[in-house]
Amino acid sequence: MNSAKIILILFIFVLMAVSSGANNPFTAKTENQHAAPAPAFKSKLFVKIIIWQHQLKEKMSMLVREAKSTRSMKPLLFLIMAAFAYGVIHAVGPGHGKALALTYVLSQRPSYVNGLVFGNCMALFHGFSGILFVLFVRVILQANIIKNLENVTHITQLISYSIITCFGVGIFSYGMYHLIKGLNKNRCISQSNINRQDAHPVISALVVGCIPCPGVVMVMLFALSMDLIILGVVLGIAISMGMALTVSIVVMLAVSGKSVSLAVVSKKPDRIILVENVMKVVGGLALTVIGTVFLSTVI
After folding, report:
1. Which residue of 2, 159, 234, 247 has the fewest CB atoms within a 10 Å radius of its CB?
2. Rounded Cα gap, residues 8 and 75, in angstroms
3. What is the pLDDT of residue 145?
4. Which of 254, 247, 222, 225 is nearest to 235 (CA)?
5. Domain that holds residue 60
6. Does position 205 have pLDDT exceeding 60, yes or no?
7. Across 198-215, average pLDDT
């Protein structure tokens, strides 16, 4: 009875806390997918993504029940593979930090290695935070420490979105400073020889990826309802790795695009510095706007 109460409270909370823009296969209603006549190409793509997520979710649910009823290890391999595929497709949909990842690439000067580290760490932190969130809340509810779960997540969102906003303001200010400084042509050449101190990819990923992934949270809730916590953690890790693959591809494409853009103007050092500083200002401004919009939704 106590476990059922925890599941019910967590489920109600997730329905309230999940952003309305994130189409979660566990909460999205399939009947609304065909309501809009003649949807645009982007909408059709997202509808297909949602359908694929539902199919994978149903497959995962069936395999979880089979593993529990038969107590066999055979379904686990297929279950982990399905969870990984679910993470890949889940990250293609709206949200999951792709916009924040692009602003990181614009505002920084990451190498392919740093871009890969950032993309993987951001997705993994995004998924792991969902796992830790469910486990933490479960312990708190069992200990009867708090009664108002909504206040806890509200404070968490305020802190996370405030950090993202401040991070964007810092990048914007740093970019504006060097942009104004770089307008002096006498300093352009010397500036190119200065070692740039870009934000550490792991720290940046931790800042933007600390918000729990609703997909991982719902899978954890499903596993919790069947008293399969360890399996839920394993599936959450598999989903996180799938999301890491998708986000990393997006980041690597962005790094390649930025490298090509800078290579076009590489023959003129003053121009490449100007373009870099403009990208940094735009990226910082975009990150500030995104953080402010997110923050305004929870204030």
Report:
1. 2
2. 27
3. 46
4. 222
5. 2-298
6. yes
7. 75
Tokens 């591809």 belong to 249
- Say what the pLDDT of residue 14 is: 45
How many Å apart are CA 47 and CA 27, to the nearest integer?
Answer: 14
- How far is CA 252 from its chain centroid? 16
Question: Two tokens at 250?
Answer: 């997006």
What are the DSSP calls for 245-282, one per residue?
HHHHHHHHHHHHHHHHHHHHTTT-HHHHHHHHHHHHHH
Tokens of 229: 């916590």
What is the number of other CB atoms lying within 10 angstroms of the CB of residue 32? Answer: 10
Handedness of CA 87, 89, 90, 95 (dihedral sign): positive
With contact defined as beta carbons under 8 Å apart, do 208 and 99 qualify? no
Count: domains in the chain: 1
Measured CA to CA, the distance from residue 218 to residue 14 in angstroms comes to: 8
**Average pLDDT estimate for 214-231:** 79
* Joined tokens for residue 212: 């729990």
Q: How many residues does the chain have?
A: 299
Rounded to whole angstroms, the Cα distance separating 284 from 7 reads 39
Structure tokens at 107: 């505002």
> How much is the average pLDDT of 12-41?
43
User: Model confidence over 120-148: pLDDT tens digits?
Assistant: 888 888 889 888 888 887 777 665 544 55
**Predicted pLDDT at 11:** 47
> Residue 108 and residue 283: Cα distance in Å, rounded?
8
